[in-house]
Write a structure and sequence with these properties.
heterodimer, A: 291 residues, mainly alpha, MetI-like fold, globular, B: 303 residues, two-stranded antiparallel ribbon, 73% helix
Chain lengths: 291, 303
């Protein structure tokens, strides 16, 4: 076999293998989206219904707006709108991400330019992230119930800030490290104040990085479930918690409604993830790898 | 000048340190120890009236076979899923290391699973894997015979299914790390080896793999530690069942503390797990610190 034929074979083989994995990736997503459009009598059938017939938006109307539809098929349904949960999710994820990024920025700048913490110490900070959240859940719940932070916004927000801080510090630091320090020194030589240097020189240069960090951490806080479940009871239930409410009903699970909610919760994350796909490596590897 | 101002910048860390001490160290050190030494459940009344029982609760946990099984299961679960993620992720990244038509398309779709809300993945797979469900139908089509595995009724299929969703969810993580490692790899050594007549296999095993080692170690460690703490997917898929065959450590902890409301036992278990995991994390951090230096010299961004 000559070289050309071998290259061609490699090209075809590559497509075959990649498409194989593509099927594995797409299949569950496809099923989830299709189920969200199925009328109740097609949620579980044998053989499985692949394409909903007819396509219906009822599941979305039930799950998101709390309209009482399809009562012919589901008798004892207690549906509620998830808008409170949506508002909670937006507020909690947004605020905690913002705080995490701001604190991360301060710390990252201090470390990168002034060495206020050694790299080694900062690395230890990663331990926070690596300890399974469930391990600290019990003490945190007890602590919160004592000081009255259980089932409150600040409680959940603080936990999210603490658990995402390692990501934001390391990610932003990797962006700041890329700016040559000479630029700042030049600005100071020309008489710019520290605040001016940071505001007019450094910040514009890292702005896109900070936005990427913000969006990356938003992905983490938006989909967090365990803490949201254990630290909340009624006041501050977030979307993932609302999602888990669809199990354990008497008629088996309300698959279509659940998937309508799941798709709605997930789609923004996929959009965000695709938008910052170049920075995902940096985020997940704590800035140690970049593309 | 920079140094003098640097002293002022020390205050940058003050808010962070305060938050950490107040909300992480206090609960862990004080509350965890208090509750693991005092027998308390929600029915007794105020927690400070709980009865002091010394190390009884720890003895109870250490005599509980379920605890050890959960630990073993967690390690197997994390180990197996990490290795599988690594193998698949590496293969995909290796195939995609050079530009080709459709690379961006594959890339975007391949990273999608890790963007999906974990809880939703669990629920979705529960639908897919029911005995008369799409997954078995698909298997039947592929193999050409009737296959009806009841994935949640027996130990081995249930355990395989939780490993599988972990792999489905997090292969993208390994994939993007490996792809970054492979495409950031210096070209010169490979060219030199080729000129000197090395075979592709030799190049792979003696140059590319060693150069990639820090990235592989990084991916392995981060993935393993995350998998140890994996909770939402396992919970929403199997709830630890059938029996307790898929009860990993986080699920065991959750059931003890919030299903049985045995807060004291939960605190004691948390404490033990915390010690074990902290030892593992400490080891990993040491390895990572070493590999990080290798990463920085190897993959210095060429600006």
């Amino acid at each position: 076999m000559n070289r050309r034929a071998r290259r061609r074979l490699y090209g075809v083989g590559r497509y075959v293998l990649l498409c194989l994995w593509l099927v594995v990736v797409i299949f569950p997503l496809f099923w989830s989206v299709m189920t969200s459009f199925k009328p109740p009598y097609q949620w579980f059938t044998w053989p499985p219904t692949w394409i909903p017939d007819p396509f219906t938006l009822n599941n979305y109307r039930v799950a998101w707006f709390g309209e009482l539809l399809d009562t012919r098929y589901i008798a004892s349904a207690n549906v509620q709108t998830v808008f409170p949960a949506l508002v909670n999710s937006v507020f909690i994820a947004g605020t905690s991400t913002m705080l995490s990024v701001v604190l991360g920025m301060l710390l990252a700048y201090g470390v990168s330019r002034y060495g206020i913490l050694s790299e080694r110490t900062l690395f230890r900070l990663l331990m926070l992230r690596m300890i399974p959240p469930i391990v600290v859940a019990v003490p945190v719940v007890l602590y919160y119930s004592t000081i009255g932070l259980l089932d409150s916004y600040p409680g959940l927000i603080i936990i999210y800030v603490v658990t995402t801080l390692p990501y934001s510090v390391w990610m932003i630091k990797s962006f700041i490290d890329e700016i040559p320090i000479e630029i700042e020194q030049a600005a100071e030589l020309l008489g710019a104040s520290r605040a001016r240097t940071i505001g007019d020189i450094v910040f514009p240069l890292v702005r896109s990085g900070v936005v990427a960090t913000f969006l990356f951490i938003l992905i983490l806080t938006w989909s967090e479930y365990l803490m949201a479940l254990t630290l909340s009871s009624t006041n501050i239930s977030t979307l993932p918690v609302a999602l888990s409410k669809y199990e354990g009903s008497t008629e088996g699970r309300l698959y279509g409604w659940q998937q309508a909610l799941a798709v709605g919760v997930t789609v923004p994350l996929i959009v965000i993830g695709w938008a910052i796909h170049r920075h995902l490596v940096r985020g997940f590897s704590f800035g140690m790898l970049r593309r | 000048m920079a140094r003098r101002q640097g002293r002022r910048f020390k205050w940058f860390i003050l808010p962070v340190v305060t938050v950490l001490i107040l909300f992480l160290l206090v609960p862990i050190i004080f509350f965890q120890i208090f509750f693991s030494l005092h027998q308390w459940t929600a029915y007794i009344g105020e927690w400070w009236q709980a009865e002091f029982v010394g190390l009884e609760i720890f003895a109870d946990v250490l005599g509980d076979a379920r605890f050890y099984w959960a630990l073993v299961r967690s390690l197997i679960f994390a180990g197996a899923s990490t290795v599988l993620c690594l193998v698949i992720g590496f293969m995909l990244a290796y195939l995609m290391r050079e530009p080709f038509r459709g690379r961006g398309f594959f890339y975007l779709l391949f990273i999608t699973p890790m963007l999906v809300v974990p809880l939703a993945i669990g629920y979705n797979y529960e639908m897919l894997l029911v005995q008369k469900g799409p997954f078995n139908q698909l298997l039947s089509w592929i193999t050409g015979q009737e296959i009806q595995v009841s994935w949640f009724a027996e130990a081995v299929p249930a355990f395989l299914s939780i490993i599988f969703i972990e792999v489905w969810n997090w292969t993208p993580f390994v994939f993007i790390l490996m792809l970054a490692g492979l495409s950031g790899m210096p070209k010169e050594p490979i060219e030199a080896a080729r000129v000197l007549g090395a075979s592709p296999l030799q190049i792979f095993f003696q140059i590319q793999l060693p150069l990639l080692r820090p990235v592989i170690v990084l991916a392995l460690i981060l993935r393993f530690l995350e998998a140890l703490g994996e909770y939402p997917k396992v919970w929403s898929l199997t709830r630890g069942g059938p029996g307790s065959y898929t009860e990993t450590m986080p699920v065991y902890l959750y059931i003890t503390s919030w299903e049985h409301f045995n807060i004291s036992k939960g605190a004691a278990v948390s404490y033990l797990v915390l010690l074990i995991v902290a030892a593992i994390v400490y080891l990993c951090i040491r390895i990572l610190l070493r590999e990080k230096r290798a990463l920085e010299t190897l993959y210095r961004p060429s600006a």
